[in-house]
Known about the structure:
4-stranded mixed sheet, 394 residues, 15 strands, alpha/beta, single chain, globular
Amino acid sequence: xxxxxxxxxxxxxxxxxxxxxxxxxxxxxxxxxxxxxxxxxxxxxxxxxxxxxxxxxxxxxxxxxxxxxxxxxxxxxxxxxxxxxxxxxxxxxxxxxxxxxxxxxxxxxxxxxxxxxxxxxxxxxxxxxxxxxxxxxxxxxxxxxxxxxxxxxxxxxxxxxxxxxxxxxxxxxxxxxxxxxxxxxxxxxxxxxxxxxxxxxxxxxxxxxxxxxxxxxxxxxxxxxxxxxxxxxxxxxxxxxxxxxxxxxxxxxxxxxxxxxxxxxxxxxxxxxxxxxxxxxxxxxxxxxxxxxxxxxxxxxxxxxxxxxxxxxxxxxxxxxxxxxxxxxxxxxxxxxxxxxxxxxxxxxxxxxxxxxxxxxxxxxxxxxxxxxxxxxxxxxxxxxxxxxxxxxx
Length: 394
């Protein structure tokens, strides 16, 4: 027989153990509960947010949506979200979208026929039309406010407006490693958004005594500029300023690399022709060096793709499709003559490593990229012709 004190001790031990067991089970339950809550919280953090996109639509509706999206043309992005917005005023002919009712010039059919004949000649000779990104184009250096400034020596000191232009070039924020485009044009563009200023160079080169350029221009308050040189561009500015023969800045109408990356070119495009009409020019040009036939397009002429044309149905390469949409929405502007062939322009890549255009051309040459561009569907917009500056819209 077990003594009573032993039984009492066992009883106390049993109840103590039972109590500890209950406490342990309770603790385990609390831990499990906390663990579940932590897991739920973790899952809530890492789980994809619930949106209307996660709702599965009926198959027929999904098919209709996919078809509609595949056939739709890319929408124009809001102005505030577009790269290059501060280059010229929103109301500039470069940036303003053309209404569908914009009138065409009475000579449009004749001029387009001559242009199409030139396209056929260049295609037969496999020389064009071209997309220039080297000598005929310009690099764009977008610089910070703190960029060190240098003097640029103007070599053409006897030209009209030269004295004021040299003053405008007295202090230019050019990066140490800046390189102009290759000869013969050696264009270079410096843009400082912090001061809202643009410098435009033709024949730029760095010599032992510093930077030189043969001609060009400068524009203060460039985000308010009409997109061509007027007396308001700078104190003492002349309408004969500008790195092109039409007084249109060479960066105007140039396809920028960040625009190609974004999939949108939301401005008019520059177009150079082999030889422009002599003696006259059209607004917005302020001068000309045209020496072509009388049925040639004058410098400053604006064209557009027929607004009724379904660009999406042409099955163009991606970059060509961007060009066609820009030509349809904003137009093309004759900026200069080449004495060779028709050309559009893309940003000169001097400041970038390698060839950034490989991803856009994908092994094609510029003439191959433009082989199926609908040149015959272009229209010449109503022109206001001038023989001397100032040349206004009306």
